[in-house]
Amino acid sequence: MATTLFFTSLLYHTIEEHKSSVAQFCGNIELSRLTKQVVFSDPYNKTSKCNRWTSPHLDHDVEALKKDDDLKIEIAELKSLFCERSQVLIHGDLHTSSVIVTQDSTQVIDPEFVFHGPIGFEVGAFLGNLFLALFAQDGHADQGDDQRVCWYINKEGILRTIEETLILFHKKFIALWNQH
Asked: Measured between alpha carbons, how far is 38 from 40 in angstroms, rounded to an integer?
């Protein structure tokens, strides 16, 4: 993430190069719309049929989110920033199933959502996916579904992945910035 975000930002590109890249990827309207819907609308919409959660463990929390008008205002402001800020090239659908990790490398697949957006979205989406997996663990364990999440079997593994992701991202991004 750090490499892509740095090398597609104005910290590395000239204004002209950046504008050219934004123009190159601006046609991805439908997939950008889908990302906005899934991230900034559906989770807070009482009538959305797209949401699933570990029930009954999260029923109370889900209901509280859907009734929280102050939260909805904050989410609307974040949605506006998401639409307005073309800071870096982002995957747009980055989650744990989009990442392939081996001993030697980490690769991201499914680039069909790629477009320019805010620099913090990619890291936030990935970490948010990990936090959702963390909070869902109790429900999966109650259902005897210990194998549902294959590469991080327990809460400690998820928390370690969150911490390592933040540390590695920070270290690599700052190193690139200092180098260039």
From this structure: 6
Q: List, as one string, the DSSP characters of 122-147.
A: HHHHHHHHHHHHHHHHHHHHHTT-TT
> Each residue of 79-112: pLDDT tens digit?
999 999 999 999 888 887 888 888 888 888 888 7
103-130 in b/e burial notation, b at 16+ Cβ within 10 A? eeeeeeeeeebbbbbbbbbbbebbbebb
Residue that has been written with the tokens 């590469």 in this structure: 151
**Residue 24: which H helix or E strand, with range?**
helix 15-25
Query: What is the C-alpha to C-alpha distance for residues 19 and 1, in angstroms, rounded to an integer?
Result: 21
Element (H, E) at 106: strand 106-108
Give, in order, the Cα–Cα distances in Å from 44 to each of 71, 111, 171. Answer: 9, 26, 34
Q: Nearest 5 degrees, angle CA 73-CA 90-CA 1?
A: 110
Task: Return the closest-CA partner of residue 113 out of 6, 35, 24, 19.
Answer: 35
Q: Is 48 left (phi over 0), alpha (psi -120 to 50) or beta?
A: beta
pTM: 0.81
| Cα 146 from Cα 142, distance rounded (Å) | 9
Which residues are 89's β-sheet partners?
116
* Nearest alpha-carbon partner for 26 in 83, 96, 74, 81: 83
